[in-house]
Amino acid sequence: MRTDCHAVHCARSALVSVEPQSAPEASGAQLEVARCGASLALCCVRQAWHCPLCARRYLDPPMVRLDGWPDSPYCVICGVRLGGSTTSGLPSPALELQPIPPEPLVIQ
Known about the structure:
The protein is mainly beta.
């Protein structure tokens, strides 16, 4: 039995056309949105926390106590500090570090 990975990926997500009303010249952009595994309905996209070690995802950071949220959330299973979603921002260009010119030596 052959499994088509592309078909499975397409069933779990959908490409949605983005047509902003404020900037019609930006139309034609596409966004990949997750689908529900049971109904295949499009799911709303939220910022997700993820564990870099075990790859678990949390929509909300796990609570440490009943009375509050931690300053820096940790994975419930691994105890590793959670990171934000990597797809939430635009990639930025790498910085080019330039050497600092030496200051002239002034002897008084």
